[in-house]
Write the structure tokens for this entry.
Amino acid sequence: MIPSSVLSETSSIAPTADAGVSSLDSAKTDPTLILADRVQQLYNQVPVAVGATLVLGAIATFELYESRLHELIVFWWVVVAVILLAQLGLLLAFRRSETRNSEPQQWHRWLGLAAFAGGSAWGFAAAVFFPAHTDEQQVFLAFMLAGIVSGGVPIYAASWPVYAAYAAGIIVPFTYVLGTFGKVLFEVLALLVPFFYAANVLVAYRINRVFNDGYRLRHAYGHLTGDYTDLNQRLEGQIAELMEAHREVDASGRKLALFAERAPIAVFETDGNATVLDVNPVAENIFGYPAIELTGRNLLRTLISAGDPTLSNDWWTTFIRKGEPVTNMRVQCQRRDGLEITCEFSLTPLVNDEGDLLSVIAQGRDVTQQLAAERLKKEFTSTLSHELRTPLTSIIGSLQLVNSGVIGEPGKDIAELTAIAERNAQRLLDLINDLLDIEKIESGKIELHPEVFALDDLVREAITLNRAYAERFKVRYATTGELPAAQVNVDRKRLFQVVTNLLSNAAKFSPEGGEVEISMEDRDGRAYVGIHDRGPGIPEDFRPRIFSRFAQADSATTRQKSGTGLGLSISRRLVELMRGQIGFTDRAGGGTTFWFEIPKRSD
């Protein structure tokens, strides 16, 4: 009979990854994926099992053939042929199936039945041919059956229940024949055969766990970011080699060592107390410690700077308790020569089927030069922006004097050219101001000066001051009813900048003769402001990045209206700094509503 674990093992498996966490941050690999890999390995071994059955069957037939057993031997070969054809048909169906990865449980059960049938064919041979031959032939048959039982271990090692079913099909009939043969020696052997069976199942179980650890580790590495794509390809290659070396019980540890050695980033293996168990050559180069000196020492106390609050002992304790991977942690580290560097770490805990922590894989890379380059870029942008703003202001002032006629009425052609120059210089100045705002926000240097004021007054003021801008596009602003009074306590200048950005965007993308509506609402202690236009709407593929820097939809309308692509990004960050929210929705009848909410002043 097939052990119940063959039929129930997969049905008890359920995904353990947190539904609210992305695959990159998954704490545990989906067991269904691991089972799919194991089933794939088992089906890859079917041709080996079929070939071995044919060869061993031929040897047994040659040795045990007798004319009086001719019909029985022919019948046995018919049974064997039917079982082998069924196994090959199952293999063909598996390779053509589109559900072999999504529904591995069913394929696992079918293979368990096929393995049990194959073992039962040999069990039938033992039950029929053993009593009908001489002592020497009986010894030969017993030796061959023992070899077949042991040989099934590497073939079905990826699933110990499948092996148990296969071996049971052989052992049970053979044990029965030995126990009822009538000889004391055979009765003693019948008592020993179950122990031999149990020992083989135990070996298969241990190898099965090694496979589980190997598959789980491969998927854990597969969850890392795209920066490690090349590494993942090498990992998969190593896992493929591991699957071929299934006779090695300690393959999981050797595989991990190969991965770490070839990784292009620093890799540490630690236990739950952050004690270093192994390091790779890149880690030696980055931190200046030889592997023999790092092994056995505490990772946090040895490499992490004492003043760094991120990767502390308390944080590590919480991390081990949760058992969830963490990525992109930037910490200050200290090399062996005393030089401080900034590293970006990803930590992945490895656990077994029982949820026990096996080890922690820490991967790190030196980002000191990268951060220095980013800092230099920001300083360059800030300096360049400041240096450009002063001459541009002078140029704009001079052009405005010319255009206003203070220094004499310019000719028509000159007036057109100076007007174009003034508009483009103003656009450059707006871009520089936006760049400076972005730089201040990202560097944390922006200062907000909260004050209490009426939000409805600010909205009215913004409408008034931006009316001339809207008229350039033949658009007008209008409020939907009376704006309700709302007192807020935020930075007035910066909130005015947000409203101006939204109003100007709505005017630019509204059709000529259109109307931009402005509304205000009180929503549970938060003041809501909506800017409603009748423009073309937001393209579907552009929506996820509409609030990104320099983001502009690729359309003829956008290119015609121009813009820096920074206004919405700045607005979002300013609103968030004021503890508010900003977003957009489609408007019934066409167009878009951009809105923001900020907390009202609490009495």
In short: The chain has 20 helices and twelve strands.
